[in-house]
Amino acid sequence: MDRAGRISAENLRAVEQARASGAEVMIVTGRSWRSTLPYYRALAMTGPAICYLGALVVADGTGRVLEHLPLEPAAWHPLRRLALAEGLAVTAAVAVPGGADGPAGGDRGRELGLAADVAYATGRADDFNGWEDWNPYTEIDPALDRCASPPTMAAVYGDRSVARVLAAFPDGLPRAQFDLSDHIEGETVLHVWHEAVDKGRALARYCRERGIPPEAVLAVGDAAMDVTMLRFAGIGVAVPGSQPAALAAADWVASPAEAVARALGSRG
Questions:
Q1: Do residues 195 and 165 touch, judged by C-beta distance below 8 A?
Q2: Are 92 and 154 in contact (CB under 8 A)?
Q3: Which SUPFAM superfamilies match (predicted)?
Q4: Which of 30, 55, 143, 249 allows an S-S link to 227, with CB 3.0 to 4.6 Å?
């Protein structure tokens, strides 16, 4: 996508060419399913999509859930208590109703219903710009009463709230990981995921279950969160202007269209 969130005609053609060659095309993203769906449709996809870095896998365009890995109660409850006690700006993204009450990371094919993709926030952060861009459908719920179970992902917004959470939990939270890789000046956000959530791990699991070897995979990314995916793939591609970590992990630096043309050309 470009900075306006549009897929170029060139990249749309590249996806069509890849699919026509017999390749399977898949979205692996940190976005929610709700935010991914417009791009899924634009690319005329019909199969699974990996969302929330791998915390959610949907089966198809209906949003039928195949796998879900929310935060553990031991991680979510202390974070929620701190946020409410000190007025921190925290959001809870809920991909699947019931959260951790369902089978976390269940066997592929064991469906958990449809992705709900709702989000709740204690409130907006005064020291965070671009709230609407980051939270297009987040509802304000000061006590987070509507988040009945541990969410798929929690996010802490603004310098003050992020600093307080990091100070309160210097060793992290149980079975969780902190991610500050999206840091932008004026838009500090700390994501909190289950410790097993990882793009590379999710894609590797999918490929293993489908009998697809790593050397038959081409992955395209641009950020630190893409590094494990780029390293897993036989050909890891970082687009020009990617974050340094992605550039260092990549085999090629190319646009998606250039990478597909080069890969198909190498196959004759």
A1: no
A2: yes
A3: HAD-like (SSF56784)
A4: 249
DSSP E strand stretches across 15-62:
49-51, 56-58
Cβ neighbours of residue 60 closer than 8 Å, sequence gap 6 or more: 46, 47, 48
Tokens representing residue 58 in the block: 């949907």
Q: How many other CB atoms sit within 10 Å of the CB of residue 82? A: 17
pLDDT at 63 over 50: yes
Element (H, E) at 232: helix 227-232
Q: Per-residue pLDDT tens for 221-262?
A: 999 999 999 999 999 999 999 999 999 999 999 999 999 999
- Structural tokens at position 26: 């898949």
Q: What distance in Å separates the CA atoms of residue 267 and residue 25, rounded to the nearest whole number?
A: 17
For residue 193, the Cα-to-chain-centroid distance in whole angstroms is 10
Amino acid at 204: A
**Domains of the chain, earliest start first:** 73-104+113-194 (3.30.1240.10)
Instruction: List, as own/partner pairs, every contact residues 77-83 make where C-beta atoms lie below 8 angstroms and the sequence separation is at least 24, other chains included.
Output: 77/150, 78/169, 78/173, 79/154, 79/165, 79/169, 79/173, 79/192, 80/144, 80/147, 82/164, 82/165, 82/168, 83/122, 83/144, 83/156, 83/161
Residue 110: its pLDDT value, please?
A: 45
Which of 238, 255, 234, 236 has the alpha carbon at shortest distance from 246? 238
The answer to whether the CB of 134 falls within 8 A of the CB of 32 is no
Dihedrals φ, ψ of 99, to 5°?
A: 50, -125
